[in-house]
Amino acid sequence: MARRRKKKETNSSSSGGGGWITTFSDLMSLLLTFFILLYSMSSVSLDKFNEASNSIQSAFNGGESVIEENTVTDTETEPSEDIIAVPSEDAVDPELIKMYDEVVQFLETKDMTAQASVKYDQDGIYVNIQESILFGSGSAIIADSGINTLNNLGELVQQFENDVVIEGYTDDVPMNNANFSSNWELSTSRALSVLRYLSEERSVTPTRLSAKGYGEYHPSVPNNSDENRARNRRVNIVLVYEHQEE
Question: Family per UniProt (predicted)?
């Protein structure tokens, strides 16, 4: 009886041990497959990997990770498809750069670099003329000193087919004289004076032209000194750039 009981216990132990090993082997295979999948994903970060690894280790009573941390660190040297820099939709069009270069060359040829500055963004080319060249203080009547400048600008505008926006700006000193009750009115009237000159005296097609007045509300520099206020009293001639549809 004792011998048969011992034999039965031995068989039971042997059978149970084999099943446990098979189950553990399957589990390790699944874990290995899981970590290989993580390893193959170039966008996985070390923090995310450790978090996933620790969670699995905790679930299985702190078992050791199959893949070492330095293995994941190596994958981070490979750029992820998600973080590869791609050209922005707002990237500057080469045609706009070409147009800007032509404007700069024109101003240099006309010896206007001391009278006008030029810049560009994705919306167009901005030719900046200071108030003192075109107008007297608090006035929207074009001064004699500004006629030659506007003639040259009219010639420049005629070299392109782009729409043209004339923008008027002032400083923050309150305006209240017999002609204008606010800087809004002064800046808008100055823009309209330039528009009329380009249309009537330089034959720029009226449908290409529009005028805007911004008053003191869009300064190019802070209005904290006489010099800066003078820089803010200005007129912009904007050659509007229309992006080509692809």
Answer: Belongs to the MotB family.
